[in-house]
């Protein structure tokens, strides 16, 4: 029920501007439910976003929020966390915002392992700027900038996050909201760079261009084509082809950046020179 989480929204800014059938609102609800479940102090929680459809969420959320420049949300979030490590810092970003213009910030943020909670809304397209293909658009998918089909290979953004050094990586979707809330919640508990890919639906640009049906059909696709990691681990390779694996994909704790940085400060404040 909305009443249970209403305190986390700037209700005077609602209704939102997202298109009918867009699942961004579903993902935002899961983020808020995870924050509530974790018992985070609303006044000590910061949510940072870049530019894009998903990044409009910061305007609706009743926290300390920053709506920043395209691709730079992680840079701003890193500055916030380093200035005040006691804050709970979240980043809301999209597949274009994070993996294209923001790609360099992404890999180095993961490598540093700063305690940030990053949720990437993956709708496979640039939705706000006209339906161009993104680095997450599947090969063969059509877009306004790929009218005959995308010839590029997409990132597996979760594998990229793991390779870059993220200590918690998970994937969920906007159909299975219970699982999505749980994996975001578990990411909050990780002391380090936590990354969650949230599969979203864009029926207006991506769905229409690729003849995927209406909004309900796109959610049914998520239901029918996503399998949990536990189920995937029991299947032979040929039966996993074409399936999207969800759940916690990687969790390997490592020293957190701001904690290690504070050790250096303490060392020199204590008079040590080396």
Automatic annotation (TrEMBL):
Give yes or no: UniProt keyword GTP-binding: no
Please list which residues make up the signal peptide. none
Give a single Pfam family match: TPP_enzyme_C
Stretches assigned to the Thiamine pyrophosphate enzyme TPP-binding domain: 51-197
Listed InterPro entries: 2-oxoacid:Fd_oxidoreductase, THDP-binding, TPP_enzyme_TPP-bd
Gene3D superfamilies, A to Z: 3.40.50.970
Does Oxidoreductase appear among the keywords?
Answer: yes
Q: Which domain of life is it from?
A: Bacteria
Sorted UniProt keywords: Oxidoreductase
Q: Which PANTHER family match?
A: 2-OXOGLUTARATE OXIDOREDUCTASE SUBUNIT KORB-RELATED, 2-OXOGLUTARATE SYNTHASE SUBUNIT KORB
Protein name as it appears in the record: 2-oxoacid:ferredoxin oxidoreductase subunit beta
